[in-house]
Design brief:
By secondary structure, the chain is of the alpha/beta class. The protein has a single domain, classed as SGNH hydrolase (Rossmann fold, 3-Layer(aba) Sandwich), CATH 3.40.50.1110. The chain is 46% helix and 10% strand.
Protein backbone atom coordinates (compact mmCIF):
# COMPACT_ATOMS: atom_id res chain seq x y z
CA UNK A 1 0.00 0.00 0.00
CA UNK A 2 2.78 2.45 0.91
CA UNK A 3 4.40 1.92 -2.47
CA UNK A 4 1.25 3.03 -4.25
CA UNK A 5 0.81 6.04 -1.98
CA UNK A 6 4.33 7.15 -2.86
CA UNK A 7 3.64 6.57 -6.52
CA UNK A 8 0.60 8.84 -6.34
CA UNK A 9 2.70 11.51 -4.64
CA UNK A 10 5.41 11.35 -7.26
CA UNK A 11 3.34 11.08 -10.43
CA UNK A 12 1.77 14.58 -10.41
CA UNK A 13 5.21 16.10 -10.76
CA UNK A 14 6.02 13.77 -13.63
CA UNK A 15 2.71 14.49 -15.30
CA UNK A 16 3.69 18.14 -15.58
CA UNK A 17 7.27 17.36 -16.49
CA UNK A 18 6.35 15.02 -19.31
CA UNK A 19 4.86 17.94 -21.17
CA UNK A 20 8.22 19.74 -21.16
CA UNK A 21 11.42 17.74 -21.58
CA UNK A 22 10.90 17.27 -25.34
CA UNK A 23 10.78 21.06 -25.78
CA UNK A 24 14.10 22.23 -24.42
CA UNK A 25 13.65 25.76 -25.80
CA UNK A 26 11.60 26.47 -22.70
CA UNK A 27 14.77 26.74 -20.62
CA UNK A 28 18.55 26.74 -20.91
CA UNK A 29 19.92 23.20 -20.88
CA UNK A 30 23.60 24.06 -21.41
CA UNK A 31 25.85 23.50 -18.36
CA UNK A 32 27.21 26.62 -16.66
CA UNK A 33 30.83 25.91 -17.77
CA UNK A 34 30.75 24.19 -21.22
CA UNK A 35 34.55 24.25 -21.74
CA UNK A 36 35.14 22.63 -18.38
CA UNK A 37 32.63 19.93 -19.28
CA UNK A 38 34.58 19.17 -22.45
CA UNK A 39 37.86 18.97 -20.53
CA UNK A 40 36.43 16.68 -17.87
CA UNK A 41 34.84 14.36 -20.42
CA UNK A 42 38.20 14.08 -22.18
CA UNK A 43 39.81 13.10 -18.89
CA UNK A 44 37.16 10.48 -18.25
CA UNK A 45 37.61 8.98 -21.71
CA UNK A 46 41.30 8.31 -21.01
CA UNK A 47 40.61 6.23 -17.92
CA UNK A 48 40.46 2.46 -18.25
CA UNK A 49 37.05 0.82 -17.96
CA UNK A 50 37.03 -1.15 -14.72
CA UNK A 51 33.81 -2.55 -13.35
CA UNK A 52 32.40 -3.11 -9.88
CA UNK A 53 33.68 -0.01 -8.11
CA UNK A 54 32.18 3.06 -6.47
CA UNK A 55 31.32 6.20 -8.45
CA UNK A 56 30.32 9.66 -7.24
CA UNK A 57 28.32 11.47 -9.93
CA UNK A 58 27.29 15.11 -9.97
CA UNK A 59 28.34 18.73 -10.38
CA UNK A 60 31.09 20.85 -8.78
CA UNK A 61 30.10 19.82 -5.27
CA UNK A 62 30.95 16.25 -6.21
CA UNK A 63 33.96 17.22 -8.30
CA UNK A 64 35.56 19.06 -5.37
CA UNK A 65 35.43 15.96 -3.19
CA UNK A 66 38.63 13.92 -2.94
CA UNK A 67 36.64 10.71 -2.66
CA UNK A 68 39.51 8.30 -3.22
CA UNK A 69 41.51 9.83 -0.38
CA UNK A 70 38.50 10.15 1.89
CA UNK A 71 37.67 6.49 1.41
CA UNK A 72 41.28 5.33 1.22
CA UNK A 73 40.43 3.66 -2.06
CA UNK A 74 42.16 4.69 -5.27
CA UNK A 75 39.59 2.85 -7.41
CA UNK A 76 36.77 5.24 -6.42
CA UNK A 77 35.82 7.40 -9.40
CA UNK A 78 34.89 11.06 -9.26
CA UNK A 79 32.41 11.86 -12.02
CA UNK A 80 31.59 15.36 -10.89
CA UNK A 81 31.68 18.17 -13.44
CA UNK A 82 31.50 21.77 -12.27
CA UNK A 83 28.46 23.55 -13.67
CA UNK A 84 26.73 20.38 -14.83
CA UNK A 85 22.96 19.86 -14.82
CA UNK A 86 20.68 16.83 -15.12
CA UNK A 87 20.53 17.18 -18.91
CA UNK A 88 24.32 17.03 -19.04
CA UNK A 89 24.45 13.90 -16.91
CA UNK A 90 21.90 12.21 -19.15
CA UNK A 91 24.24 12.77 -22.08
CA UNK A 92 27.19 11.15 -20.29
CA UNK A 93 25.56 8.21 -18.55
CA UNK A 94 27.19 5.65 -20.84
CA UNK A 95 30.48 6.37 -19.12
CA UNK A 96 28.84 5.31 -15.86
CA UNK A 97 26.85 2.28 -16.92
CA UNK A 98 29.63 0.66 -18.96
CA UNK A 99 31.65 0.55 -15.74
CA UNK A 100 28.86 -1.35 -13.96
CA UNK A 101 29.59 0.23 -10.57
CA UNK A 102 28.74 -1.59 -7.38
CA UNK A 103 27.50 1.68 -5.88
CA UNK A 104 26.58 5.00 -7.47
CA UNK A 105 26.17 8.17 -5.39
CA UNK A 106 24.38 11.02 -7.19
CA UNK A 107 24.07 14.68 -6.22
CA UNK A 108 22.54 17.02 -8.81
CA UNK A 109 20.05 19.81 -9.14
CA UNK A 110 21.38 23.10 -7.78
CA UNK A 111 22.63 24.20 -11.20
CA UNK A 112 19.31 23.20 -12.77
CA UNK A 113 17.59 25.42 -10.21
CA UNK A 114 20.04 28.21 -11.03
CA UNK A 115 19.04 27.94 -14.70
CA UNK A 116 15.31 28.09 -13.89
CA UNK A 117 14.72 24.52 -15.03
CA UNK A 118 11.33 23.62 -13.47
CA UNK A 119 11.33 21.44 -10.36
CA UNK A 120 9.21 18.83 -12.10
CA UNK A 121 11.65 18.60 -15.00
CA UNK A 122 14.56 18.09 -12.60
CA UNK A 123 12.64 15.22 -10.98
CA UNK A 124 11.73 13.84 -14.40
CA UNK A 125 15.38 13.88 -15.48
CA UNK A 126 16.39 12.17 -12.26
CA UNK A 127 13.89 9.43 -13.04
CA UNK A 128 15.39 9.02 -16.52
CA UNK A 129 18.88 8.78 -15.02
CA UNK A 130 17.76 6.16 -12.51
CA UNK A 131 15.92 4.11 -15.10
CA UNK A 132 18.86 4.13 -17.50
CA UNK A 133 21.25 2.96 -14.80
CA UNK A 134 18.87 0.19 -13.76
CA UNK A 135 18.45 -0.89 -17.38
CA UNK A 136 22.13 -0.88 -18.35
CA UNK A 137 23.78 -1.72 -15.03
CA UNK A 138 21.12 -3.66 -13.11
CA UNK A 139 23.38 -4.72 -10.23
CA UNK A 140 24.27 -1.14 -9.33
CA UNK A 141 23.00 0.13 -6.00
CA UNK A 142 21.90 3.74 -6.51
CA UNK A 143 22.02 6.42 -3.82
CA UNK A 144 20.42 9.81 -4.47
CA UNK A 145 21.66 12.49 -2.10
CA UNK A 146 19.62 15.56 -1.25
CA UNK A 147 20.41 18.88 -2.90
CA UNK A 148 22.32 20.93 -0.36
CA UNK A 149 21.08 24.26 1.01
CA UNK A 150 22.79 27.49 0.02
CA UNK A 151 23.63 30.60 2.02
CA UNK A 152 22.42 33.84 0.39
CA UNK A 153 24.45 35.97 2.81
CA UNK A 154 27.26 35.60 0.26
CA UNK A 155 27.45 37.36 -3.10
CA UNK A 156 29.20 34.92 -5.45
CA UNK A 157 26.28 32.98 -6.95
CA UNK A 158 23.13 35.14 -6.94
CA UNK A 159 21.45 33.00 -9.61
CA UNK A 160 21.50 30.14 -7.08
CA UNK A 161 20.88 32.03 -3.87
CA UNK A 162 17.63 33.72 -4.86
CA UNK A 163 15.91 30.44 -5.75
CA UNK A 164 16.61 28.47 -2.59
CA UNK A 165 12.90 27.76 -2.05
CA UNK A 166 13.13 25.25 -4.91
CA UNK A 167 15.65 23.06 -3.07
CA UNK A 168 13.23 21.48 -0.54
CA UNK A 169 10.61 21.07 -3.27
CA UNK A 170 12.92 19.03 -5.49
CA UNK A 171 14.25 17.09 -2.50
CA UNK A 172 10.70 16.16 -1.54
CA UNK A 173 10.12 14.75 -5.04
CA UNK A 174 13.38 12.82 -4.91
CA UNK A 175 12.54 11.38 -1.50
CA UNK A 176 9.07 10.35 -2.68
CA UNK A 177 10.48 8.61 -5.74
CA UNK A 178 12.93 6.38 -3.89
CA UNK A 179 10.68 3.37 -3.41
CA UNK A 180 8.92 3.80 -6.73
CA UNK A 181 12.15 3.87 -8.72
CA UNK A 182 14.20 1.58 -6.47
CA UNK A 183 16.97 3.76 -5.09
CA UNK A 184 18.07 4.92 -1.65
CA UNK A 185 17.44 8.57 -0.80
CA UNK A 186 19.96 10.12 1.58
CA UNK A 187 19.19 13.43 3.26
CA UNK A 188 22.63 14.92 3.82
CA UNK A 189 21.44 18.53 4.09
CA UNK A 190 21.04 18.55 7.91
CA UNK A 191 24.74 17.79 8.27
CA UNK A 192 25.63 21.29 7.10
CA UNK A 193 22.84 23.57 8.32
CA UNK A 194 23.23 26.58 10.58
CA UNK A 195 20.61 27.80 13.07
CA UNK A 196 18.71 29.51 10.24
CA UNK A 197 18.69 26.33 8.13
CA UNK A 198 21.17 27.79 5.65
CA UNK A 199 24.49 26.32 4.57
CA UNK A 200 26.69 27.01 7.58
CA UNK A 201 29.63 29.37 7.02
CA UNK A 202 31.99 26.94 8.73
CA UNK A 203 31.38 24.43 5.93
CA UNK A 204 31.33 26.66 2.86
CA UNK A 205 33.62 29.00 0.97
CA UNK A 206 30.94 31.23 -0.54
CA UNK A 207 27.53 29.87 0.33
CA UNK A 208 27.48 27.13 -2.31
CA UNK A 209 30.63 25.00 -2.38
CA UNK A 210 31.96 22.96 0.50
CA UNK A 211 35.19 23.12 2.46
CA UNK A 212 37.26 19.93 2.94
CA UNK A 213 35.97 19.45 6.50
CA UNK A 214 32.43 19.14 5.15
CA UNK A 215 33.43 16.23 2.94
CA UNK A 216 34.87 14.42 5.94
CA UNK A 217 31.56 14.81 7.75
CA UNK A 218 29.71 13.69 4.62
CA UNK A 219 31.74 10.50 4.20
CA UNK A 220 31.59 9.74 7.94
CA UNK A 221 27.80 9.92 7.74
CA UNK A 222 27.65 7.61 4.70
CA UNK A 223 29.78 5.12 6.61
CA UNK A 224 27.73 5.48 9.78
CA UNK A 225 24.55 4.71 7.83
CA UNK A 226 26.24 1.69 6.18
CA UNK A 227 25.91 3.16 2.69
CA UNK A 228 29.67 2.81 2.28
Amino acid sequence: MMKYILLLLFLPAFAVAQQRPTNQNLFDTIPFIPDHTTDRLAQFAKQPVEQGGIIFLGNSITEMGNWGKLLNDTTVLNRGIGGDITFGVLKRLDDITKRRPKKLFILLGINDIGKDIPDSVIAYNYAKIIKQVHANSPATKIFVQSILPVNPAHANFPQHYDKSEHIPRVNKMLEAGAKVLDYTYINIAPLFLDANKKLADEYTYEGLHLKPAAYEIWVAYLKKMKYL
